Amino acid sequence: MMVRSAALLLCSTVFTALGSSMALAETTTTTTETKQQQKPTETKPQTVKVIAHDKNDAEQVIVTAHLDRMRSELSPSTGATVHKFSRQALETIPGGDNAPLNQVLLQAPGVAQDSYGQIHVRGDHNEVQFRLDGVQLPEGLSVFGQALMTRFADNMSLTTGALPSQFGFLQAAVVDINTKNGTTNSGGNLSLYGGARDYFFPSLQYGFHKGKWDFFATADYVHDRTGIENTTSSFNAIHDLSEQYHFLGHLRYTADEDTRISFIAGISNAEYQLPNNPGQQTQFAMPAYSGSDLAQQLNGSVDSAHLDEHQKQITDFAILALQKEMGDFSLQSSVFSRYSSLRYSPDWLGDLVYNGIAQQAARSVFSMGTQHDVTWRAAKDHTVRFGFQLFVERNTSKSLSRVFAQDGEDADGNATFGTTPLSIYDGSGKTGTVYGLYAQDEWRPLNNLTINYGLRFDGVSEYTAEKQVSPRLNIVWKPWKGGVIHAGYSRYFTPPPFEVVSSSSLYKFAGTSAAPSVYQNNKVRAERDHYFDAGIEQTILPGWRVSFDAYYKLAHNLIDEGQFGAPIILSGFNYRRGQVNGYEVSTSYDRGPLSLYGNFAWSRAIGKDITSAQFNMSPDDLAYIQHRWIHLDHDQRWTASAGAAYSFFHKTRFPLRLSATMVYGSGLRADGLVPNGVALTPYATVNFSAVETIHNTFGSAWPGDTQFRIDVINLGDHTYKLRDGSGIGVGAPQYGLRRTILGGISQGF
Known about the structure:
By secondary structure, the chain is mainly β.
């Protein structure tokens, strides 16, 4: 309190002396990680530009920094592996704030890319949780990337490894986004960005603070023909237009230096054309089909290059949080809600004759919940943390399907079907809860040794009713200057995803062209893991660090997900046993105008015996996997990323920044002689960016920077497959984006 009061007095004196001069002042706030955290790299100082109206502005800056630091200490990642993205790092990546969030995360170690914007961290399918200012968002249904925008992040981190006990439910990785606010990002910015493939991306952001109020909001519109991966190796996809709208806003009220109320809201609305795969053979067309009554009654096309399938996705969320400091106690209490929906519209005729089923499918999840985190500085060497989370969720699923009815068998015993389609309606809904409680003690028996131990109790009551007590233990040791060694064990409990199908729907399709070959449909159960992690990090020279990390996971009822059928809706299933292990090597150098980084990872993810949602699989695959280990469909043995950036004239009004990033993958799995028996061809892609900035372009008449940028995605125009259409739970082929040149201009005000 004495230090803070002195700082307030100093700032008050400075701003009083400035009086009505309205001079532009810069206040630098330095926030470092807790000493116990595995990653010792400090967060870079944040420069906060403040219009000096009066001394209250300086006070607002200091209070904001103080409360931000207290919030970060509610959830330290002691003993885990943390990869940080500062604001500077986010701006350096080609595309900058225009880059999708999943593309940014590919620059972290151990992150593999997949189709539909999915990422896989350390051999898990999709178990990544997203947090905004420390509050976990409930899981949604978004398939083609995230509803969150890079532009909304002031900085963020990706945390993996043996997580402390405050992290539950989705535990492959934790993406924690510290949002922009009107104090650190005052003023506005208008950006126009676009280029190849009808890419048009205007965006606007604005923030301000006045007195105890703080506001920041950003909105954008995306129009392009690259919404979903191309199903062919051609330069442009067929039927791939997407229209997307995003909005994120943040309103905060700081009652006093120890109390803050925050409200965050977001809207994402996206509609996609599904790319066509030309040259496919119809499965249910008959010689006289084109002249039949069926062709006259239904709309659509029977040419697979001219199908017209669409998918629409909506995500809305809101978070209301109270942060409070009370002596030795710090807390953040929040309530939140999230609505997520997905609707697939088929080509009624085309889907029917190619697949034997044309299905209009809609799913939605409405979630409400609360999260409470408390830190108690109990003693000099003991910091106790405890809290709980509760989600109440309502899941609904509706579908209208048209299928052919079986009318007999041919001479070879194959089913034959009539020419008149049947309509089958199916709908279901389920309400359930997911909850977790935790307590832990961060103990420092020695100045260079930290032991964090704790317990979680998690439960789920939805499609399955299960619970588990999970111990966690992390040890961090700093044996010499610049060196950090960590080791940890975590027991994990992961509730199953919502994307499951009730058994009653299967028998509605019996005797039709959409009849499953297997009618077994055991419920999807929670995954239970033993997770081990150990690593070392060393600072070799100022600005240069290297690290090595190894992990091993033993899973029971390992959860995997796949796309089964034409609607791109992921469905969950279990392997009775699973093993995931690997290691990561990372290095970075950041000093002056030069920054470099490189990551290299090896991983193996295998599973045995599919024990739920078996109707999605073929009998032969089920029989083979029952007694044999197979690679998971998202298993990629080698993954690497690297980047370099250099700023020319960085001390002038006209800095020029050149940067490049690289992503390498040895290839996801595909079917060979056995399920998921081979890997696709390795690939490496390079992205390039050039950004010219003019500081304070129009002088004092109109403060604000102007920025020009050009980005080249896949600089070498490398043709590569993410998927070939085969594998357990894999739909159509998907190819990576070919060379795409984009440019933009932004103006601050």
